[in-house]
Structures are given as C-alpha cells and as structure tokens.
Amino acid sequence: MHYVGTLDEAAFSVPPAYEKHNQGYSRIALVDHSVGSVHMGLGVSKLEAGGRLASHLHSYEEGFFILEGQVLGSVDGRAQHWRTTRSVAGDAGSATKATRARA
Predict the structure, then answer these.
(1) How far, in Å, CA of 96 to CA of 86, rounded?
(2) Which domains, from first to last, does the chain contain?
(3) What is the pLDDT of residues 3-57, one digit of tens each?
(4) Does 98 have pLDDT greater than 70?
C-alpha cells in the first residue's frame, strides 16, 4: 500500500486523550488507521513556547525529531534537554516522559 498526503496547518488540534493533560500542544495525524495503517502512526506535533505535556507512559515505541526550538523533558525521571534536529526514541512501556517547550 502507498499513501501520499498533505500537511494542512489548519487541521492542528488537541488529541482527545491530551485535552486535560497539556498546555499549548496540538497534533496532526498524517498516517493512522484512517488511511489503512494497522500498527503505525505518523504525525506532526506542535508544542508552543512555555507549553507542556504531563508525564505519561506509552505501551509502544515512540520516536520524535525536534524540528525547531528546544524542549526540556524527562525520561524515567532523568532530566533531558533536546534541541533542533535531535532525534529521541524510547522503548515500549519503559519510559515515562514529560515535556516542556522552552520559551
């Protein structure tokens, strides 16, 4: 299966699971079940300056790239400082993460 999509900046929204656990976070899903993907998702997220995501745990692997700015975060309680073009990955169920965008 092949899929070609476009990024619609107006479509950024807060995912329902994050509505009460974030400040300044929004996301667009590019690949998910709606386009036939069963086990993988791909999206673009925004975290506004000073924004935050509450600590959370994934039951799957997660990786992300910082495309612009800096993020302060923690993985398993260890403070991290991520910058532009830095890739970050975590194993399934092994990392509790929290993030805050730097102003």
Answers:
(1) 19
(2) 9-101 (2.60.120.10)
(3) 787 888 899 999 998 899 999 999 998 888 888 888 888 899 999 999 998 888 8
(4) no
Q: Which helix (H) or strand (E) holds 74?
A: strand 70-75
Confidence band for 88, pLDDT divided at 50, 70 and 90: low
- Report how far Cα 69 is from the mean position of its chain's Cα atoms: 14
Are 71 and 102 in contact by the 8 Å Cβ rule? The answer is yes
- Rounded Cα distance, 79 and 99, in Å: 10
pTM for this prediction = 0.73
Query: Tokens 């299966």 appear where?
Result: 1
Q: Do residues 24 and 51 make contact, with C-beta atoms less than 8 angstroms apart?
A: yes
Q: Are 73 and 97 in contact (CB under 8 A)?
A: yes
Among 19, 71, 65, 29, CA closest to 48: 71
The CA distance from 88 to 83, in Å, is 10
